[in-house]
Each structure stands twice: as C-alpha cells, then as structure tokens.
Amino acid sequence: MYIIHSVQELKQLVSAAKSAGKTVGLVPTMGALHEGHASLIDRSVKECDTTVVSVFVNPTQFNDPNDLNHYPRTLDADCRLIEERGGDIVFAPSVEEIYPAPDTRVFSYPPIDTVMEGAKRPGHFNGVCQVVSKLFEMTTPDRAYFGEKDFQQIAVIRAMMKDLGFDFNLVACPIVREESGLALSSRNALLSEDERETAASIGKVLFESRRQMADRDVRATHDFVVNALNAIDGLEVEYFDIVNADTLQPVAAWDEAQRVQGCITVFCGKRPVRLIDNIAYKAS
Ligand code: PAF
Questions:
Q1: Residue 284 has what pLDDT?
Q2: Which range is least confidently modeled, 61-65, 124-128, 166-170, 173-177?
Q3: What share of the chain is helix, strand, coil (3-state, %, to 5)?
Q4: 162: burial class by Cβ within 10 Å (0-12, 13-18, 19+)?
C-alpha cells in the first residue's frame, strides 16, 4: 500500500493504474476511521481494481474553529485500517497541498444546500464541494463512495457532480451502527462512555418512531422524536426534519413523496458533541 502526501504522486499512481486498464475507486474521508469508513473501503475494494482513500481534515468545511481544532486526527491507525481492508493508496495531503491558494469558488445548490445542515452550518457545504471537487479532479475515479449518515451531503455532492459534469457513479453506502443503535461517526471518539450510551438513544428513538409511523402523522412523529430525545438528560435536539428524500424539503404527510427521510442533529454531553443521524421512513 502506498501512503502519499502530494497531488503529483497521486496523479502518477492513478495514471499508472488506468494505463494498466484498472478501475479506480475513491473513498474521501477526514480520517479517524471506523467501521463505517471500513464498509466504504470494502465496497470499493470489491467493485474497483484500485482503491484510493483520502485522509484530509478539510478546514474550509468547518464553520466553527473549535470544532476543527478538536476533530480527531489518527493517521497511523487510519493507515493500518486501510491496509487491513485492502486499500491500495492512502492520500494524506497537507492543507497547502490541497489549497496552494485560497479557494474562492462558490457552490450553491438551493434549496438542497440551504436547509438542515446548510442552514445550521453556513458555508459548510461550500467547503465540502470545494474539497470533493478537487479530490475528484485529482483522482478522476470510476466510482466514489460516501456514507448515508451524511444524507444531505450526498444530495449536495450529486448536485455538484451534475453542475460540474463529473460523469461517474457516486455510490451511497448504508449507515453502520453499533449494536446499541448508535450510528458510527468519527465524532463518537469525543464522547465519554456514559455519553456514548446516552447517544445510542438517538438511533433507538428514530427506529421506534418508524415502527410506530402507522399510528402517527408526520407532525406527531416529529414531536414524538423531539420530545423523547429532549427528555433524556444530556441530549438536546438541534433540528429534526422529515423531508422528501430527493428534494430535502419538508413533507406534511407520509404520502406526499415516494421516499421520505427523517434527518436529525442532536447535541450530546458536556462539550457538547454534535451528532447527526437519519432514517428512511419510506424508501420507495
Ligand atoms: O464526509 C466527510 O468525511 C467529509 O465531508 C468529506 C466528504 C471527506 C469531505 O471532506
């Protein structure tokens, strides 16, 4: 496995792979890898001849400097996991390598990027599009793999791909959960053991609300989830939106869209740690 830090090396390795007739899969990450990322790597290894995993904590997508400073960085462990799962190339660039000059490009895909995370974290998706478009240009993959935990991120990246003419498959991979129901996230590393247990309620309540959705309309389901989580000491819901899974606009009734998703952000614990999760209420 190659561990490289420069765009030049990345381009050389990808070009050699392509000249040998190999397909290339890209798994973009910010490191602190867990089984959720491993599932993306597994899928790429299965479907592509060469798997590139990028490990880069992208400063332009953080609107809170404190969040950026606390983001876990574990490159050695990340490389071990990538090698174990059969990845071929780890691309771990510096900030200067990715942004030799400030990126002034503006990406805007309303209304997909103006709701939920877009509303709560101004500039976040612009930063995501900046880095992901650069990674796509540098790697020219045949497929790119993203986790559905970041449900809205996938919708925004699909819009960006259409806009910029990136003509390859974005493969959306299912959320991986702990047995407790907690969605795997690099941010879980910032939780204490107790907080981790508390955070497991997010997944549990979402699943309970889906089991009972025939008994509640959309409004009542929303209130059930928000009230159940806010009643738990150490949790505070920032937003919970029940939306059309394609347009990400709120739905008022279950039959309003073929695919309906519930997307939630919850603050957990003392620091607090901001956790996101989502659930398919209707998956066409
Ligand atoms: O989902 C993430 O980890 C990041 O937003 C991504 C896609 C790697 C871009 O920095």
A1: 80
A2: 61-65
A3: 45, 20, 35
A4: exposed
Tallying the residues shown for the chain, one arrives at 284
Q: What is the pLDDT of residues 137-153, one digit of tens each?
A: 999 999 999 999 999 99
Residues near ligand 1 with C-beta < 6 Å?
28-30, 58, 61, 128, 131-132, 150, 153
| DSSP code for 121 | S
User: Would you state the pLDDT for residue 247?
Assistant: 96
Residue 124 annotated as catalytic: no
Nearest to 24 by CA among 157, 146, 143: 143
Q: What is the 223 CA–ligand 1 centroid distance (Å)?
A: 30
CA 30, CA 28: separation in Å to the nearest integer? Answer: 7
Domains in the chain, start-ordered, CATH in brackets?
A: 2-173 (3.40.50.620), 186-279 (3.30.1300.10)
Q: Which atom of ligand 1 is nearest to the CA of 56?
A: 10
- Out of 5, 34, 37, 222, pick the active-site residue: 37
Give, for ligand 1, the residue of 52, 53, 58 to mutate: max count of ligand atoms closer than 8 Å to Cβ: 58
